[in-house]
Amino acid sequence: MHALNADGYDNVPTKVYLVTYPDECPLCHVAAQFSSCIWAYRRNQRELEGLFRCPRHECQRLLIAEYVMDSSTGYHHLTRTKPQAARAPIFDPEVKAVSASFVEIFTQ
Ligand SMILES: [Zn+2]
């Protein structure tokens, strides 16, 4: 559980409780330990968006995690992260051997 202060649509700073932080970066698709939320914003009474940065040295991209509040507990649960980058397709080694440039162009 992570307690933090969130800004909001109603301009009232509010203490919120995020049950979990993301555990995988949607951009580099590597499991990562997110240690802090840079900024949290309540879009309305139930929905919240949290700004995070990928902790991997090779990535460090910014991402947004979407949360929805469970009205019975008041805790926010992670529903998805964005933007989602496409995963690099996996090619058969034979295709790679025949045309390395095809794999390179297709992946771009
Ligand atoms: Zn990343």
What does this structure look like?
This protein is mainly beta. It has one domain. Helix content is 13%, strand content 35%. Strands 2-1-3-4-5-6 form a six-stranded mixed β-sheet, with no helix packed on it. A hairpin with a 6-residue loop joins β5 and β6 (76-82). The longest helix is centred in the C-terminal third of the chain and has 8 residues, at 100-107. It starts with a strand and ends with a helix. Bound molecules: zinc ion. Zinc ion binds at residues 25, 27-28, 30, 54, 56, 59, 61.
Summarize the structure.
It is built from 2 helices and 6 strands. By secondary structure, the chain is mainly beta. Zinc ion binds at residues 25, 27-28, 30, 54, 56, 59, 61.
Query: Low-confidence segments, ≥5 residues, pLDDT <50?
Result: none
Q: Whole-number radius of gyration?
A: 18 Å
Which ligands accompany this protein? zinc ion
What's the quaternary structure here? Answer: single chain
What's the shape? elongated
Mean pLDDT: 90
E-strand count: 6
Strands of the widest sheet, in order across it, are: 2-1-3-4-5-6
| Element order: H for helix, E for strand | EEEEEEHH
> How many domains comprise the coordinates?
1
Binned, the helix content reads 10-25%
Tell me the major beta sheet: 6 strands, mixed
Summed up, the helix count is 2
Query: Structural class of the helices, strands and pairings?
Result: mainly beta
Distance between the termini: 39 Å
**Percent of residues in beta strands:** 35-45%
